[in-house]
Amino acid sequence: MVNSGDLMRKHAPLALAVSAALILFACGQQSDPDSVSSSKSDNQVAPAPVKDDSNESLTSDKQAYFGNLHVHTSWSFDGYTNGSVTAPDDAYRWAKGEEIQANKEGGMMKIKQPLDWYAVSDHAEYMGVFVSMEDPDSPVSQLDIAKEITSDDPAVAFKAFAKVLDDMNKGKSDPQLNDPKMAKTMWQEIIETAEMHNDPGNFTTFAAFEWTSAPSNRNLHRVVIFNGRENIPELPFSTLDSDKPEDLWKYMNTARENGATLLAVPHNGNASDGMMFALTDSYGNEITKEYSDNRIMNEPLYEITQIKGSSDTHPDLSPNDEFADFELWDYTLSAITERPTKRQGSYLRQAYLDGLKFEMNNQGNPFQYGIIGDSDTHNSASSVEEDNYTGKFAGEFNPEHRLNGISGYEEASNQQIREFGSGGLAGVWAKENTRDAIFNAMQNKETFGTSGTRVKVRIFASFDYDEDILNRDDWVTMAYDKGVHMGSELTGSSDSSPVFIIQALKEADGANLDRAQIIKGWVDSDGNVQEKIFDVALSDDRTDGSQMLESTVDLATGKYTNDIGASAFLLTWKDPEFDASQHAFYYLRVLEIPTPRWSTLDAIALGQKPRDDLPVTIQERGWSSPIWYKAQ
Description:
Elements: H1 12-22, E1 36-40, E2 63-68, H2 77-81, H3 88-95, E3 100-101, E4 108-109, E5 117-118, H4 129-132, H5 144-149, H6 154-169, H7 180-197, E6 204-205, E7 207-211, E8 222-226, H8 245-257, E9 262-266, H9 289-298, E10 301-306, E11 309-310, H10 348-360, E12 370-373, H11 399-404, H12 411-419, E13 425-430, H13 435-443, E14 447-450, E15 456-462, H14 475-482, E16 484-485, E17 489-491, E18 499-505, E19 513-523, E20 529-538, E21 568-574, E22 584-592, E23 595-596, H15 598-605, E24 617-618, E25 621-624, E26 627-630
Parallel strand pairs: 1-20, 2-5, 5-6, 10-12, 17-26
Antiparallel strand pairs: 2-13, 3-4, 7-8, 8-9, 10-11, 13-14, 14-25, 15-16, 15-18, 18-21, 19-20, 19-22, 22-25, 22-26, 23-24
Helix pairs in contact: 1-6, 3-7
């Protein structure tokens, strides 16, 4: 087996020829936008409590652990063709803080602060096949198509790979490349590599793969992860088996019946053009409760942000949300830079609203997702640090390539690279850094997502909390004992609002916090879906959420200061518009103060002015999983 971590790729022409065409391929009825009412709270808020001893609350049973599930290496076909020289082993070493090779030129990558857990999830389609073409000891290297793909003639290489890619998009398998024996071998190595790096209490790993369905270049991808190595199926499930998520869930149900423990995480609804959260099943049939229960059992989490953009909401869907325009990557997976036309069905907040309506109609809630953030790196390193950004693909390691464009690429493809975000992190509240504890947190949706920062966020809710609960030393214990954590359902018969506990803690060496917001969605008495944003905590003695903090970013140096903002928010809140008869959801969004975007830091490093077509600063953020109120 070729050790791609040591590979110095001699076939760079393929990467150049294919990358521009491949850069986006990580392989009916919709709601009426006018029926959604979006509003911003005009309530004045008191300055939020700031606890300098904010770590005090973290001495409870559960801690926040950060990691990634969505990670590719050269074992993914598009990682290989875009120049990656990294293997799954390299990915785990990088996450633990080791330095790894970034590209064939010898650049190196190292994370500043190691992660707590990690999962390599290479594409199931032809997993490890293309990198094995360069291994003379591998039978696949002797195939005619392998000789074409590894040809020194880029035209020959491109033609051969384009044929494979076209067939893959059509669900057609090349029997030479889809040999079950080789597929089992590569999958087993993925499992064994995760096992080798798993270190309970210190660093946790999971065996994983990505199912890469993209009908008509609309993204329906899911990452599938396994807890432990027991009873894992001999083969992953790929889009060559089926491009329908219902068939993926059937594979998962069978694996579960055979003793495996697993879950899936869909991502990039923003690139699905309305298909991710469609209001029918994959065959155009009406949503049923059985469908909803099957979907949410198999995929309890959703990836709200990653390199290819955020999919919380869109300004077209939430026009009164002044922070909706955040790292939006407005493309499908088409290589011709096709734009999506359907916002409905593409963003999570709208899906949450649609889910409430389904439930009211006794169809279950197929969109009752917990939240994580993630990466989608195709070069082992999730690269979430804005000041340590190394790109999605190996060809983007050079900041000049990221910012000014890669020679040979269409300008539209280069612009998509500039619009990539740095990716996100998945946060879990777990009792310990072990597979069982982290996996259980994911299954229970006690999770949160961030845009790459390590801000810690969580919410609780109950009809039984005393409003002075935060004065108790054991408030966290009481929060669990008397209420529900994020990701849960809340029921009750009280006419008064439940009490919400809201907590946010800044990253230790990161930016201060600007504000905490509760995002509420509900179905009103006329059957219309509504959303509203409440500024529940503001830094710097502000009482009006329309008062924005001024940026401290110095565009000459890329530095910012923490002279503004808060280190933590900890408060209770009650919904001033609570109606016990209305189904609703509540989730927390916490914003940091403005900091420089990676593209701004690249421009400064290159001695250039920041580009006018990119944000100069961003407000990094964290999102909690929701709490769903179920009206009786």
